[in-house]
What we know:
Layout: E1 2-6, H1 11-22, E2 26-31, H2 37-40, E3 46-50, H3 56-62, E4 68-71, H4 81-97, E5 103-109, H5 121-134, E6 140-145, E7 148-149, H6 154-165, E8 168-172, E9 178-179, E10 182-183, H7 184-196, E11 202-206, E12 212-213, H8 214-224, E13 230-234, H9 239-249, H10 254-262, H11 287-294, H12 317-321, H13 326-344
Parallel strand pairs: 1-2, 1-4, 2-3, 4-5, 5-6, 6-11, 7-10, 8-13
Antiparallel strand pairs: 9-12
Organism: Nocardioides cavernae
Domain NAD(P)-binding: 7-110
Protein name: NAD(P)H-binding protein
Amino acid sequence: MRVLVLGATGYIGSRLVPHLLEHGYDVVAASSSPPRPDRFGWDDRVRAIRCDVTDPAAVGEAVEDVDAVVYLVHSLDRSDFSDRDRVAAETVAAAVAASGVRRLVYLSGLVPDVPEAELSTHIASRLEVERILLAAIDGSVALRAGVVIGAGSTSFEIIRQVATLFLVQPVPKWMQSSVQPVAVSDVLRAVDDALTDESLSGAIDLGGPDVIAYPDLLQVCGRAAGLARLRVPVPVAPPGLVGLAAALTTTAPFHTVTSLIESLRHDMVCRPGHTWKPSHGTPPIGLEDAVGRAMTPMYAGPEGALPSDPSWTRTHALLAVVPLPAVGKAAAHLAFHRVRSILTGG
């Protein structure tokens, strides 16, 4: 099967491409930036191309002679992400519908069980894109994932930085909602199943075996790092203010952080009867195991860090050997990132 991966150089894509190769797929890796296979360690089995998903001509050419498309494109680092993601989804859906593509797999986000008017802008956009892509062809699948556990994952890295930086962690009352994290290894397995199992269709939820409140997730990350932290309930804390504080105290892109924080006020758990179950192999990885892998230096599996991960997720090599406590290293990492951003204009 020849698979076109749109958004191949993002976090999931950088791990999915080698996973697909290992499982015998013919892979076309597409990204909006110029192809740089060497950055990701891809060999000549991967055909790397440049493709702007809002350009009908480019997308039409990219989907030629492929059997399946995996859509991993999200624009959370932009203030106008909803508009751009809508245009991109409509462009890809039209191209796929006019081609010979048999399967279309979209990595979406868990949708809380609340009226749509109450959804965050981030989740509402994911749902809109999902509906556009599911309507493209009969063989379309939307895999809805919540917090993806793995070094380099945006949601996980934000949680890890907060858990490390603050000795005392204020927890707003509205952040006591539940989340069902999933290890990135299981996301890759689910994509593989969605590509080959024709019985899978529509929206399918991805989650690990553990359902946990956000403050407890912070505790799991702190415990894996060997850190003792105190979480203090805060009765009044507007989501906008919390998002701003998190954006200023982590190294993640500003719009990404504020958009994700807005989604924390609802339970993000899988729907009974609509949850992915592995077609073969072991059950989904437990939370403690997944976090342990993600926080183990030089871990070689998908949960481990890769040199191609965004620079904001990586601690400077010098800080790894400086004799500072964890909170000091976290603060130094944040300061180093801020200075580098100013000097580079990014």
